[in-house]
Design goal:
Blueprint: E1 2-3, E2 11-12, E3 20-24, E4 26-30, E5 40-44, E6 47-53, E7 64-70, E8 73-78, E9 81-85, E10 91-96, E11 105-108, E12 115-120, E13 123-128, E14 133-135, E15 145-151, E16 154-159, E17 164-167, E18 181-183, E19 191-197, E20 200-205, E21 210-215, E22 224-232, E23 235-236, E24 243-245, E25 248-255, E26 258-266, E27 269-272, H1 276-283, E28 293-299, E29 302-309, E30 318-323, E31 328-335, E32 343-345, E33 348-354, E34 357-362, E35 367-372, E36 377-378, E37 381-382, E38 385-388, E39 399-408, E40 418-419, E41 425-426, E42 429-435, E43 446-449, E44 460-463, E45 467-468, E46 472-477, E47 485-492, H2 502-510
Antiparallel strand pairs: 1-47, 2-3, 3-38, 4-5, 6-35, 7-8, 8-9, 9-10, 11-12, 12-13, 13-14, 15-16, 16-17, 17-18, 19-20, 20-21, 21-22, 23-25, 24-25, 25-26, 26-27, 28-29, 29-30, 30-31, 31-32, 33-34, 34-35, 36-37, 38-46, 39-44, 39-45, 39-47, 40-41, 42-43, 42-46
Length: about 500
């Protein structure tokens, strides 16, 4: 038997007959010891359990539009209100901040000033973290505000539809000098997004440029100056995609020649981290990816950049995730037969790490979820996971497939056990199907058991699989167990000559 690169990322090329791989609700992880059975494994993405529910609101204002954790306290925006959410899931409404149905940004000076500043519906609001009193809209701002950050002792507000940002008084988000407006002169277009990283202010334009500023201390009114040499010929086309991963900004870029490439800063230079497959997928969305909403979180040593595209899939949305550990992409979503693709976007749209948990806000309800790899369902609903493997083809020669085994962790069935249609105990099930025409049509489904609790020697395999000149295998699962796949092995005609064997060598190089 031979390996054929079964464990891998999502990569559906412009031509599905070239490559049509999918990793939906699974992510690849390199085996860093380099001594395991495989160079790479597939691990299940985390499930969701309800942590808190903000008061019931009427759509579309019911979404959780932003979250921020400050010194062990959690704040979330649901509809037009700012809430403080406690460890037991209860909440306290801290006040009304308006609602334009868009994501909000929040920033805090923490213990230095005990202030939380929220940008919502074009205005800024300030919460005194000691007195728990909300004030605003804040006066003194020289225009509509689209984003706020905290950088090097100052709050910085981006003035919408302009090339300007305004700086607050030192350590005070309630005081804004009208003279504290700085105009970006190093590039000609409007500023679309700002972010604080490395205690520096990163400023992104719409038409292909970005500049990094630092606090020079030259002026108490406008203390930020351009860093020489920190100019980038790459702007931002999706302002809400901007996130900081491992202390480094990442964004979906835009330039005069086009949009739709994901970048990550390498020093002061943009480094492309998307690939042709994901760029092709984004280009097919009505917004061409400009509506992407992103957040970053860290789990199990991986830093993930989660991007939700609301307009994709005829409004059902789509979610793509980049993993800095492997530099690979996978997809997340919820199975929905009503959707044209069969999937809706993952429920999460914003994130905060608080109370020792990764917490995410739902874009469709006022629910905040705890997200954990030890949760095997999404709010009690099954998680459908799909892995579509690389093509198996040798110059279109007919290959006879006699045996396929998926090396998956077995014997992890729940207690009490799952039941079949007759009410009898059964093991978790893995479903196999295949395509002989490059992923256009599919065979019937063939089900195998992954073993009930303690059946650690169970094997998951299929015999007498027919023949094809070009075959793509796909497995799917829905049962609530930790579906961890190590590899897959195929016995077929001239398998040992298959070019796909080189994939495992490539994964070892990545490791």
């Amino acid at each position: 038997m031979g390996r054929f690169g079964f464990c891998g990322p999502s990569y559906t090329s412009q031509s599905i007959t070239a490559d049509c791989q999918q990793a939906m609700n699974w992510y690849p992880e390199s085996i860093e010891s380099q001594l395991g059975k495989s160079a790479m494994a597939l691990y299940p993405t985390p499930g969701l359990s309800v942590f808190a529910a903000l008061p019931s609101l009427i759509a579309p204002t019911r979404a959780v539009r932003g979250m921020l954790a400050i010194d062990g306290r959690l704040f979330a925006v649901g509809g037009p209100n700012l809430y403080e959410v406690y460890k037991d899931g209860s909440n306290n409404n801290r006040g009304n901040i308006g609602d334009d149905y868009n994501q909000v940004t929040m920033a805090s000076n923490g213990a230095d000033g005990n202030q939380l500043v929220v940008c919502s519906a074009g205005n800024l609001y300030s919460l005194d973290l000691t007195a728990n009193v909300l004030s605003g809209p804040i006066l003194g701002l020289q225009g509509t505000v689209s984003m706020v950050v905290y950088c090097s002792g100052y709050f910085v507000a981006l003035l919408a539809n302009s090339n300007k940002f305004q700086v607050s008084a030192l350590l005070d988000g309630t005081t804004w000098n009208p003279l504290g407006v700085e105009q970006v002169l190093v590039f000609p277009e409007n500023v679309a997004a700002i972010v604080s990283a490395f205690n520096q202010l990163w400023v992104y334009g719409l038409n292909g440029h970005a500049q990094v500023y630092y606090n020079s201390g030259a002026s108490a009114v406008t203390p930020f100056d351009v860093i020489p040499g920190a100019f980038m010929e790459e702007g931002i086309s999706a302002p809400s995609s901007l996130a900081v991963l491992d202390n480094t900004p990442s964004w979906i870029g835009g330039y005069q020649t086009g949009i739709g490439i994901a970048w990550r800063a390498n020093g002061y230079s943009p480094s492309r981290i998307s690939n042709h497959a994901v760029e092709t997928a984004w280009a097919a969305y009505p917004s061409r990816g400009t509506d992407a909403i992103g957040y970053a979180y860290r789990d199990q040593g991986h830093t993930f950049w989660v991007l939700r595209f609301p307009s994709a899939n005829q409004g059902f949305g789509a979610t793509w995730v980049y993993d800095t550990a492997t530099q690979m992409w996978h997809e997340r979503g919820h199975w929905s037969p009503q959707s044209p693709s069969g999937w809706t976007a993952h429920n999460s749209t914003c994130h905060a790490f608080c109370f020792g948990q990764n917490l995410v806000g739902d874009w469709n309800t006022g629910v905040i979820y705890a997200m954990s790899i030890y949760t095997y369902q999404d709010n009690g609903q099954p998680i459908r996971r799909v892995r579509r493997a690389p093509h198996i083809s040798v110059e279109q020669v007919r290959i006879f497939h006699s045996f396929l085994q998926v090396d998956v962790e077995v014997g992890d069935g729940p207690m009490p056990p799952l039941l079949d249609g007759a009410g009898e105990p059964r093991g978790p099930q893995m479903i196999l199907r295949w395509s002989n025409d490059g992923g256009r049509t599919w065979s019937n489904e063939y089900v195998r058991s992954a073993g009930q609790t303690g059946e650690y020697r169970q094997r998951v395999y299929w015999n007498r699989l027919g023949q094809a000149r070009d075959r793509v295998y796909e497995v799917s699962v829905t049962d609530p167990v930790p579906w961890r796949i190590v590899d897959a092995y195929l016995k077929a005609g001239s398998l040992y000559q298959l070019p796909q064997q080189r994939l495992s060598q490539r994964y070892e190089e990545i490791t």
